[in-house]
Amino acid sequence: MLFFFRDDPRVSAVQRGAIDGVAFATSLVLAPLDAWDRLSNVFQSRSSLQEEVRRLQQENRVLKGQSQRLASLLSENARYKALLNSARDIGDDLIAAQITSLSPDPARHIVMLDKGVNDGVAEGQPVLGAEGLIGQVTFSGNRNSRAVLITDSAHALPVQVNRSGLRAIAEGSGSIDRLVIRHLPATTDIRVGDLLVTSGLGGRFPHGYPVARVTEVIVLEGDAFATVFAAPSSLLDRGRYVLVVMWGDLQREATL
Amino acid sequence: MERRQALWVIYVSLGVALMTMLLPLPMEWRILRPDFVALALFYWVLALPHRVGVATAFGVGIAQDLIEGAPLGISCFGLMLATLVLLFSYQRVRQFDGLQQSLVMLALMMLSSGIEGWMRTGVDVPTLPLMGLLGFAISMLCWIPTRHMCRQLRRHYEVV
Predict the structure, then answer these.
(1) CB B9, CB B47: distance < 8 Å
(2) Is the ipTM of this complex over 0.95?
(3) Distance from CA of A27 to the nearest CA of B (A)
(4) Is the pLDDT of residue A7 over 70?
(5) Please, what's the b/e burial string for A52-78 (b: 16 or more CB within 10 A of its CB; e: otherwise)?
(6) Taking a C-beta distance cutoff of 8 angstroms, is the pair A249, A94 a contact?
(7) What is each CA distance from A69 to A53, A61, A237, in whole angstroms?
(8) What does R_g of chain A's alpha carbons equal in angstroms?
(9) Rounded to whole angstroms, what are the CA distances from A177 to A134, A170, A203, A231, B53?
(10) What is the CA radius of gyration of chain B?
């Protein structure tokens, strides 16, 4: 029965409602661990904190330096775009979120985020890690949401080789450090080390976020197609802090 | 006057089994997580077939899907069928010793997740890789401790 009604809005309403419940149960299960974390934070030594502050200040200085150039580049880019009469990129709003848990289903790469509809997270919004795109929101409850990672074997996204502008589809492989691009002509110009960025085609992901770096290009003699493997730029199984891009229908229409 | 049945013990233990699904594990290790939900369910079917049956299996399946974020109801049918098989044969399985029962549980778990795998293929949801077999083996080893714990609970609260 449920099998046939799996796309019914009432069924997904139940699933959405359950997200907050599941997140709450998870927080109950994790409470002892959290308490331990907090306790060890309290007792963290002064010197290690100072060390961290110094490191962060350094990093901040570097980032500030880079962003100085970014501002001028952005305005320059805007002028060029105006010259070309093309649609302007709209600066994306970001929401900081935390990954609270992994789905227990070992066949999938689904994570729970601690931000939901109340914070402006909606289904379909891209999720960024520290170094690049990591996934997209699939279900959002009121205070929590679920996101599927780009390496999930049911996930595929349109990408572009940064160097040559070649477009392709990067599929998740089911293993956490690998994406696959199939059906590229064997003569395609793609090399190990190429950066793949989101191409913005399909309208799901905004253009230009780094996704992965090519690690292996396999061309078999006499085969018409090459198989390309790439490693996601962000370490998907490290780090808890992610950014959800407020990329709603409004922005999509503006860029299309 | 008849003593009130402590049926809540059954549901609480199933709830705790569901909670074990939420324990954090590294991404690549999730596959080794023992399936305490199925084991607890099968224990109660085996011990109290007049209390726990296909309907409970359905409820457990729904809860499991909600926790996993899988399409709703995808693990129900497998669990229900495995429960049905156990309901037909519980008298025989009760006579088995620990190892034999573990093997029966292994078969039941493989039956239920095999059917779940079919359903998943039907709706294009990724299925378990081959390593999943290792998970079944670990679940099988957990049958005897699970049985022991649930039995203690059942005796202590006199659930019948």
Answers:
(1) no
(2) no
(3) 9
(4) no
(5) eeeeeeeeeeeeeeeeeeeeeeeeeee
(6) no
(7) 25, 13, 32
(8) 21
(9) 11, 13, 25, 5, 42
(10) 15
pTM: predicted TM-score of the whole model, two decimal places: 0.81
Amino acid B59: pLDDT: 93
Nearest to A115 by CA among A107, A105, A106, A125: A125
- Chain A contact for B147 (CB, 8 A cutoff): no
Quote the minimal CA–CA distance from B115 to chain A in Å.
13
A96-154 pLDDT tens trace: 898 988 888 888 899 999 888 888 888 889 998 888 899 999 988 888 999 999 999 89
* Cα of A157 to nearest chain B Cα, Å: 16
Residue B144: both structure tokens together: 């005897």
pLDDT at res. B3: 58
Closest CA to A140 of A161, A118, A117, A106: A117
Which carries the bigger pLDDT value, residue A231 or residue A62? A231
**Tokens found for residue A242:** 């992610």
Give Dmax over CA atoms of chain B in angstroms: 55
- Where helices occur in chain B by DSSP H, the ranges are 8-20, 36-47, 54-68, 76-95, 98-122, 132-141, 143-157
CB contact under 8 A, A2 and B72: yes
- Rounded to a whole number of angstroms, the distance between the first and last alpha carbons of chain B is 16
List all residues of chain B from 39 to 98 with a beta carbon under 8 Å from chain A. 66-74, 76-77
What pLDDT does residue A1 have?
Answer: 58
Closest chain A CA to residue B30:
A106
Residues of B in contact with A138 (CB under 8 A): 69
Whole-angstrom distance, CA of residue B109 vs CA of residue B47: 17
